[in-house]
Amino acid sequence: MAEPDGLIALIPAHNEEATVGTIVAQVRKLWHCPVVVIDDCSSDATAQTARNAGATVLPLALQLGAWGAIQTGLRYALRQGYRTAITLDADGQHEPQGICALLQPLVDGQAEVAIGAFPERASRARQIAWSYFRWLTGLELEDITSGFRAYNHRAITVLASGEASLLDYQDVGVLLILRRKGLRTIEVPVAMQPRVLGASRVFRSWWVVGKYMLQTSLLCLARVGYNHLPPAADD
């Protein structure tokens, strides 16, 4: 595969000291690219562990959640002149070996965004949530909440803008904004591992699931993804 244009890896992390060092080291070994860990106010040694493994750490002054941390990383990438960004979780679910499959559609010009998909990982509750949001939005993606993604420069620019701020999660709202801007999103089958420790930020309790469903439904009803515009000119 041809080398992607200006690659950077972004890893949002909150209390992931047990796994973040291994992930950083694997990405650096396989891709020899800068790795940035956005530390979302961890109370453990996540930041130091990431630094020890060779990452640049961006410590957040306020806890912003998964999407806020990723957007911070995307803005950093844009300012530093990187043109392709990979995002992956710090909990060990995403295998750095799968990055190659994610980058290929961008290198081939098939899409502006590639999502690593492994829908078999989803619980029954998550499957129901995904089906509901597919019905509500018309999105034709199997693994809506996967954070294992590749963004090209156009997508980074759109998602680093203020328009993509104030979202709690990276999934439906972000996908709708991408669609409205005419950016192409493609799913790529990848392998994923179960979490070693901790739990999903979204599906860790029924209260959080209910809050997520309500917020995301309101977002969809606000028609964030409507008014389809023709794709902007290539940058």
Could you explain how this protein is built, in words?
The protein has 235 residues and is of the alpha/beta class. The chain has helices spanning 20-31, 46-52, 65-80, 99-107, 124-137, 153-159, 172-180, 206-221; strands spanning 7-13, 35-39, 56-59, 84-87, 113-117, 149-151, 185-189. The chain has a 7-stranded mixed β-sheet, sandwiched between helices. It is globular.
Features:
about 240 residues; seven-stranded mixed β-sheet; 8 helices; 7 strands; globular; disordered C terminus
Question: Helix and strand layout, with pairings?
Answer:
Blueprint: E1 7-13, H1 20-31, E2 35-39, H2 46-52, E3 56-59, H3 65-80, E4 84-87, H4 99-107, E5 113-117, H5 124-137, E6 149-151, H6 153-159, H7 172-180, E7 185-189, H8 206-221
Compact overview of the structure:
The chain has 235 residues and is α/β, with parallel strands linked by helices.
Uncertain runs: 228-235
The whole-number mean of residue pLDDT values reads 85
- Determine the fraction of residues in helical runs and give it as a percent range: 25-40%
Topology as a string of helices (H) and strands (E): EHEHEHEHEHEHHEH
For the secondary structure, the number of strands is 7
Tell me, briefly, the overall form.
Answer: globular
Report the C-alpha radius of gyration, rounded. 17 Å
Helix-strand category: alpha/beta
What is the terminal-to-terminal distance?
Answer: 22 Å
Determine the strand fraction and express it as a percent band: 5-15%
Strands across the major sheet, in which order? 3-2-1-4-6-5-7
Query: For this entry, what is the oligomeric state of its chains?
Result: single chain
Largest sheet: 7 strands, mixed
The count of helical stretches stands at: 8
